[in-house]
């Protein structure tokens, strides 16, 4: 299976003029997954935690939106067998994997998955990020890489730039620091420069402005670790901006 990093938007993603169709087309071009393992910017928990594996609820982890966004449903099956496999892959000296059986999918997970697999017929498991350290997350991705040969689609869900204070009123107006960071990201990904990506806070222009916190860039490192052997085939599938934030999304393999 390929590995994805996608910019997941927010609840209004479903109303975007092109984004839902782009995600739907992307999923149609992929092999049919046996299950999805997703890492979202919206779940940081240490030690590493696994979410619900039986009935999988949704977490409406946003505020101040119109009521209909809180009425969205996505009743994806759980993936208990995948959870066992993930625990076994991640276990090691000093590593603990915990279960949070009532922790559902946050909007970083269900919003894009609803567009990609609208029938909610693919089992889904969400994994927490125990740290924002790029090297550590890359290492977690490496450990998860064997799942690709078992039909599991590994997805990192964040946002290629994420500074809510710099959001603009439309997709056309983009702050220069956002455009500079996105251009650096495009070139660095195309060059397959893993070292620069992992050290983005020092190598990328305006990294602190593009990402005041690294939480939305961090899922990329899990994806890079899981897809390391296909780094040379990395490609951008979706780009452009949403209210001034870069929505670059990539595929490995």
Automatic annotation (TrEMBL):
The keyword Nucleus does not apply. InterPro entries: Extradiol_dOase_DODA, Xdiol_dOase_suB. It is an enzyme of class 1 (oxidoreductase). Its cofactor is Zn(2+). One of its GO terms (molecular function) is dioxygenase activity. Its EC number is 1.13.-.-. Residues 22-233 form the Extradiol ring-cleavage dioxygenase class III enzyme subunit B domain. It comes from the Bacteria. This is Class III extradiol ring-cleavage dioxygenase.
């Amino acid at each position: 299976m390929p590995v994805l990093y996608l910019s997941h938007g927010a609840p209004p993603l479903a109303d975007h003029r092109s984004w839902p169709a782009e995600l739907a087309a992307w999923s149609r071009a992929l092999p049919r997954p046996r299950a999805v393992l997703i890492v979202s910017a919206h779940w940081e928990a240490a030690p590493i935690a696994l979410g619900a594996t039986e009935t999988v609820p949704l977490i409406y982890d946003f505020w101040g939106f119109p009521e209909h966004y809180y009425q969205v449903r996505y009743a994806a099956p759980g993936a208990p067998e995948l959870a066992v496999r993930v625990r076994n892959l991640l276990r090691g000296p000093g590593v603990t994997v915990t279960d949070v059986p009532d922790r559902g999918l946050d909007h970083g997970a269900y919003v894009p998955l609803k567009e990609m697999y609208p029938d909610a017929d693919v089992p889904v498991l969400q994994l927490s990020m125990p740290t924002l350290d790029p090297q550590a997350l890359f290492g977690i991705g490496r450990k998860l890489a064997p799942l690709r040969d078992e039909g599991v689609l590994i997805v990192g869900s964040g946002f290629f730039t994420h500074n809510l204070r710099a959001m603009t009123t439309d997709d056309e107006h983009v702050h220069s620091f956002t455009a500079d960071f996105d251009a650096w990201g495009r070139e660095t990904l195309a060059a397959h420069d893993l070292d620069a990506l992992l050290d983005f806070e020092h190598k990328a222009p305006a990294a602190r402005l593009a990402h005041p916190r690294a939480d939305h860039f961090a899922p990329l490192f899990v994806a890079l670790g899981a897809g390391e052997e296909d780094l040379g085939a990395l490609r951008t599938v979706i780009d452009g901006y949403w209210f001034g934030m870069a929505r670059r999304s990539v595929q490995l393999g």
